[in-house]
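lol ok so funny story. i was supposed to be doing the assay writeup but got distracted and ended up predicting the structure for this chain instead. priorities right. anyway since i did it might as well share w the group, maybe its usefull for someone
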Amino acid sequence: MKRPNGTPPRSGKSPIADKRAAAAPEPVRKPRKVRRHGRARRGGIFGWIAGFVTLIWRIIWGSVWRLGMVVALILGAASAYFYVGLPEAEELFDGRARGSVTMLDRDGRVFAWRGETYGAVDSSQIAPVLREAVVSAEDRRFYRHLGVSPRGIASAIRINLAAGRGPLEGNGGSTITQQVAKLLCLGETFDPTRFSTEAEFEADCRSGGVWRKVKEIPYAFAMEAKYSKDEILSIYMNRSYLGGGARGFEAASQVYFNKPASQVNTSEAAMLAGLLPAPSRFAPTASLERAQNRASVVLGQMHEEGYLTTDELSAARAAPATLSQAATARAGGYFADWLMESGPGFLTSDTTEDVTITTTFDQRIQRAAERALNRVFDEKVRDGSASQAAVVVMSADGAVRAMIGGRESRVSGVFNRATQAKRQTGSSFKPFVYAAALEAGYSPGDRVEDGPLTIRIPGGRNWSPQNYTRNFRGMVTLTQSLAQSLNTSTIRLQEAVGRNQVIRVARDFGIVSNLTTSPSLGLGASEATLLELTGAYAGIRNGGTSVAPYGVVNLTMQGDDRPLMGQTGGFGERVISQRAAGQLIYMMQQVISSGTGTRAQLGSRPVAGKTGTTSSYRDAWFVGFTEQYVTGVWMGYDDNTPLQGVTGGGLPAEIWQAVMSEIHDGLPELALSTVSPDGSGIIMSSGQTTPQVVTSGSADDPLAAALAGVMNSIDAQNTGRTVSAPTEVQGGPPTTPGSSSGASSDDALSRALQGILGGN
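and the output, tada:
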């Protein structure tokens, strides 16, 4: 029977429905807060700590990534700014800002270069081994970083802290890219309103301040984005200073090895790369051994980086680089630096053209002076001493023949103690006191008291000079006073003559530094350079006519035969009469024959000079001359530390004697004499007690013979005057300046004859 459509209503319970009804209800869950309550109860205090730490971490992390994002945006903006201003790499390869200066000695041989001597080269003109040496020595991760190396900075900080320095002092951890940023001055140009010279501007560019370090980072990123690694390396290798007046590896290769940078071998490449940290110190012209030792370190770094095999390393170390014959012969760095500093800037230090300077420099004398100085220091100075010395040798007309500005003699671009160091002159100033006295009419045989002396100084203070020995000798002649370098007698003479006259004589002879007007003037309380003092003594040597020390004979443009500039110095005006100069030379001869300068004796060769030691023993001098040369020596410490047991009559006199012995080797022994520049033919030559006047003119000249006879007879009759100082506190009231007794040589005839014979 067919069932009807639809589902009929059911009644009662169905077993299946019961099952469905039983499975349908959801299980009862605990409220969410009850579960949290149970978890908190189970964690206790540790849960709260964990939650707090999580909160702090979220705050720090949120701050860090936000700060990082801000820094990244700033760096990106700064890098983009620098990127826009960067020129094409080729425009930066040539770092020449000036022309070249080639210097010739008195024989026409090249001895020094200055300025930007050679042009720039690109990477294809630099030997691959040279590029590898630079990367190994300066920035091992150069090809793997983006301009800044965090590992390098961290390593530098660690090294600085281990050495006891500040984290940013000393090793800077700069990459080659950052160093190029410094060389390019971060894109800045010279501003004359901010910097007085370009050298000052460049020094500021290379300063290691924190702000400049910060600016280097975006500039380095910009360069890495703009240029290839080879282009950055080429800029670096063209602009780096490498000593010897060479800027760039092409110039350095030519200067040191006389070959282009494309032809250097492994040892030479390592030596050039080793110059980068300290060019003046590691320059092979300064110390070949030190340069070779530094190159050996670079070779080891190249081996560590895989650029050299073990066999190649051994071969390179077995055959270290040496200087070319031309480079070995060239010296005179201090002399060359002096010319660059003292000459007109537009033709020397700032020249934009290539020029050639013919100089007074004598390479034979320079090498002889260097040998002598080194020998004395090796034999007489303790090992490790930081004491320094300077030497100047010149002819009597002021032509400088040799110059040593420090114990490291074959250098350039460093402090020159012969021309830049102003030091107290001590007793080496005393000849100007006696020159003023002799010019005023005093005689070498006149007497002056060496005894206790006190001088009133404005303001109510008193000054009492003492002798070096703390003893007094009573009445002495002017000759004895100078020979023994007595202080109290010198000051009495100075006060009798007048300080203004002493200052005039010193200045006219060439002491251009400021001179004190206090009574200590005569004891060398004022400062002067060694070049000034040596030039002033040259004026005494040549008969009382001042000289201006000079080194330039002429200057020409390369390729042009007509000089642009001629001799820059030489004879000047007469300062004292020829007679007074002859008397002073005689007195200075006694300094060496029997006074404080006996260690300067040159056997039978006539010499004259003067010792000098400052009261604090910080400076020791000896300046003197023969007929051929005038030489000055200074010795002391750069930091003004007092010398231990050294006076002007000690080591400086021995250095002077060694130098003069070397440079006079083979020269004839000539008597010290001066001929009047006005052609009168009067020669001053030393006699038994005082200089005698004789004639070198024709024997038929009765006037000259008569004048000489009169003057000699006056000197023979002179018994000597007594000098008294006008400002003594002890020994009675002040007297009139220049008062004396026994003025037999002070009459009108004597003065008139002195004027005639002296050309006054």
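Residues 45-85 form the longest helix (41 residues). The mean pLDDT is 79.
back to the writeup now i swear
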